């Protein structure tokens, strides 16, 4: 079995309520909100790993522990054999810059920069000379179908085009890992499906590792090599789509597939019997 790219060991994340020690340090600690509870997980190189859950389930928090934007309260996040909490701030910044791109639901583009300059921003931060970074940014815009709008500004683009710019900006630095937090959920259904197809096409070319957060099971099934389902900060079940469909661990998991056409993944054999023997 290959070594995991990410290994999460007993990850827990807790937040204090507004009356907690941050505001009243001399009082007893208030009740905490547990966003993540004892998460153990492996993510492997080259897979699209999708995290699914309802609002408040902890899926976005879990995503942000992978690059240490949200440090865990306890447990270890290990990337390529390195425990992230043990890294210096400088080493952590370098790791994010060199290995991890991120795409958010909000497009997070710079309004005052052209599309080309938006895409080239990460290369600029990395110290790549102007001519080289603009050449790479233009090539990436061509790849996502926006080569003809390089001199436009974000406000001149549709939402779908803006998200393509965001994706191009994340990919132009050639990260080995792409973290995507509800990246397509603000788009209308047709554009959303186009973005899913684009992501799958780019993944077929590069085989980078993608961790994708969504609340939409149809999107998860279309994109995911493996899917993790979360409920109230806990991992309920992790597996390939056909496993989750044919052997849901709980009624909560089963409900995610209601109204979804799962015929492509259903198996004639009794998968549940196979699962219970493992």
Automatic annotation (TrEMBL):
PROSITE patterns: ABC_TRANSPORTER_1 (PS00211), ABC_TRANSPORTER_2 (PS50893). The keyword Repressor does not apply. It comes from Kosakonia oryzendophytica. Keywords: ATP-binding, Nucleotide-binding, Transport. It comes from the Bacteria. The keyword Protein transport does not apply. Pfam families: ABC_tran (PF00005). Residues 6-257 form the ABC transporter domain. GO terms for biological process: quaternary ammonium group transport. This is ABC transporter. One of its GO terms (molecular function) is ATP binding. InterPro entries: AAA+_ATPase, ABC_osmolyte_uptake_ATP-bind, ABC_transporter-like_ATP-bd, ABC_transporter-like_CS, P-loop_NTPase.
